Amino acid sequence: MQLNILTPESKIFSGEVQSVQLPGVDGRFEVLDNHAPMIASIKEGIVSVKSAEGKQEFNLKSGIVEVLKNNVSVLTEGVVK
């Protein structure tokens, strides 16, 4: 599935992934290939991405995630420094 992580200023990540774990406001959740469509709020925390190249983690501020037709878009206020 295609994952895009975007802030108002830049694109943090874009690529094919096997799974992504996100810090939802009601707890962590995982999105896998062919996931049902959804929109959810995320809180500040670690986003874990698993791809063919390995695992990556991003410490992001709050935002929203949209899952639709194997495209996952994470729109966040920014990266925690």
Layout of helices and strands, plus pairs?
Layout: E1 2-6, E2 11-16, E3 19-24, E4 27-32, E5 38-42, E6 45-51, E7 54-60, E8 63-68, E9 71-76
Parallel strand pairs: 1-9
Antiparallel strand pairs: 1-2, 3-4, 3-6, 5-8, 6-7, 8-9
What is the structure about, briefly put?
The protein is mainly beta. The protein has strands at residues 2-6, 11-16, 19-24, 27-32, 38-42, 45-51, 54-60, 63-68, 71-76.
Trace the largest sheet across and list its strands.
2-1-9-8-5
SSE arrangement, N to C: EEEEEEEEE
Structural class: mainly beta
CATH fold call: ATP Synthase, domain 1
How far do the termini sit from each other? Answer: 28 Å
Taking all Cα atoms into account, the compactness measure Rg is 11 Å
Determine the number of helices (DSSP H or I, runs of at least 4 residues). Answer: 0
CATH architecture: Sandwich
Shape: globular
Highest CATH level, the class: Mainly Beta
